[in-house]
Amino acid sequence: MGILRRLCSSWNLIRVVRFGNNNSYNYSYSSFDPPNPSSSNSFLTHGIHVFQCPDTVGIVAKLSDCIASRGGNILSADVFVPQNKLVFYSRNVFVFDPVMWPRMQMEEDFLKLSKAFNAMRSVIRVPALDPKYKIAIIASKQDHCLIDLLHGWQDGRLSVDITCVISNHYRGPESEVIRFLEMHGVPYHYLRTTAKNKSEEEILKLVQNTDFLVLARYTRILSSTFLRSYGKDIINIHHGLLPSFSGINPSKQAVDAGVKLIGATSHFVTEGFDAGPIIEQMVERVSHRDNLQSFVQKSQNLEKQCLSSAIRSYCELRVLPYEKKKTVVF
Amino acid sequence: MAMARRVPQLVGLANRNRNRNRNMSFKSLDPSSSLTHGIHVFYCPDAVGIVAKLSDCIASRGGNILAADVFVPENKQVFYSRSDFVFDPVKWPRVQMEEDFLKLSQTFNAVRSVVRVPALDPKYKIAVLASKQDHCLVDLLHGWQDGRLPVDITCVISNHHRGSNTHVIRFLERHDIPYHYLCTTKENKREGEILQLVQNTDFLVLARYMQILSGNFLRSYGNDVINIHHGLLPSFKGGNPSKQAFESGVKLIGATSHFVTEELDAGPIIEQMVERVSHRDNLQSFVQKSENLEKQCLSKAIRSYCELRVLPYEEKKTVVF
Asked: Transmembrane residues, as ranges (chain B) (predicted)?
């Protein structure tokens, strides 16, 4: 299963040095001036490197030495080697001087290590230099998650580029979503779907230049053909605590079951329905004092938080595939 | 469904010697000065004026309400309340209290009206059923010993043999609680014998008891049975939920305490608790976290039940005040 593998492969196509990209990044450093190689000003930029390879002695030593040898300073590191699994995961966050360690050189250096250790995955990201991830959001009639994502994006809390919004629900020009999207120049594509025709070909065309997709309460099931053709990761929010209440109307199922806790689950989309590797789960208490309406309200609140959290983790390279159906989330 | 229907038999005021280990802020019952706690739960068809009548009843006898919960669900025409009050048992004798609330219960055609005075009424008698896993059993026994679990444990029944040197057996011997080992097979669940052993109990606690009690047993026993399920129902019903959870990659695991009905792991839920898990957990830590949750969840459910906080709500749910 290629979680983030698609991200990796799409990475190799992207130009590495993009000093012109002055997208607004929320860094504690002052606004980013494209460094002039001849300038003697040096300032530090954040880099993130994730690595997944067969386990062996000496990986951490080599990785950290690589960073140090280029003047990089590791600020935090997570290493995880599960028992008896012979696989190694790490995620390093470091600061470096892009003059001393140019982006392309960084790519080469880690590529060398990746080959040396036969890595399944080796991804670097320098948020200040690399382009933001491009995503398309697919939604249906329920728009609380969509709106929350749009606002998060507008506020800079969601560090992505939204290429378009696709929906099988028509929205008029006066609706909040349409007005917002028009204001920001983000196209909205209404694609009527039926059980027989899910408009998947059109969707594929619309999303071909994205890095990953977000299903924000999209009610149609994407076929395995679509998943294979698209090839990249798709993150979905399920309004229930999987594996409880898979399928439709989990809030009503929860009310009827008399549970005392309800939740939301964000996960990768795979062929099994509501069964892909889970990224994040959140719960909230409910009691006899809740009715269906408050169940739904609490659930919607959880979905928004859970989906945002998953997307943020994903963009920060915190999410890695683990065995068949799980994730490591650093 | 017989939830909390059994009212502990009113043992008269002569049983004052049941005052051991009461964690009450009042001194031992001295007729001249002390106030005693009473709890009353009431469940009846909704109407105007119930709260007024209930509170007036208490006030007219000099009782002072310290806490009250009233719940009337939308469009359901039922009324639930739980009142916690202090009173002087001289001014309002226990038998009189029973009569007064009975009158109200008849007036409002109550489905349930239970009054409990922990200082005077006998503790609930429970039997605990367990299998091989004993973390919940041991936790209950210690809670009982510390006075945190206000029940009388009449016996422990198990389909797992425990030798005389085991912690459980030594503990039970020290405290004079019989341990009944009933070997079960697929064909013979020994339910007849269990029924005999538990006939004088107020409710049963299944502390990771692995046999499924039949509908016959439940009907014959007739009182409530509380179970702990080591998973967040309805996820992971059935065997080895920790392993199921571990393999499914969930980020939260939980435990559920619920009433036992004929359907496996499907009775009305009393309490649920969760804890976070991550890639750093292996099956062992899943199990450890789960066991910890089960202990807490089961204790909490039993305590809520004993405090009359748990009431049946619709077919498959509970009100827990």
From this structure: none
d(CA B84, CA B136): 30
Residues in chain B with CB shorter than 8 Å from the CB of A258 are 268-269, 313-314, 316-318
Angle between helices A144-154 and A176-183 (to 10 degrees): 30
CA distance A307 to A313: 10
pLDDT digits (tens, 9 = 90+) for B141-158: 999 999 999 999 999 999
A167 - beta bridge partners? A139, A190
Rounded CA-CA distance B242/B291 in Å is: 10
Residue with tokens 């036969």: A118
Q: Render pLDDT for A173-226 as a digit per residue (tens, 0 to 9).
A: 999 999 999 999 999 999 998 878 889 999 999 999 999 999 999 988 899 999
pLDDT of residue B31: 52
Q: What is the H or E stretch that residue A255 is in?
A: helix A250-257
**Of chain B residues 220-259, which have a CB less than 8 A from chain A?**
232-236, 247-252, 254
10 Å Cβ neighbour count for B273? 22
Tens-digit pLDDT profile for residues A231-273: 999 999 998 888 878 777 888 888 888 999 999 999 999 987 7
Kindly compute the dihedral angle of the four CA atoms of residues A257, B254, A215, A295, in this order, to the nearest 10 degrees: 40
Rounded to a whole number, what is the distance in angstroms from the first to the last CA of chain B?
19
DSSP string covering B244-294, please?
HHHHHT-SEEEEEEEE--SSTT-SPEEEEEEEE--TT--HHHHHHHHHHHH
3-state SS, residue A122: strand
Complete domains list, chain A, with CATH:
2-125 (3.30.70.260), 133-329 (3.40.50.170)
Where do the DSSP E strands lie in chain B?
Answer: 36-45, 64-71, 78-87, 112-116, 124-130, 151-158, 179-181, 203-206, 224-229, 252-259, 269-276, 310-313, 317-320
Tell me if chain B has a CB within 8 Å of the CB of A315: no
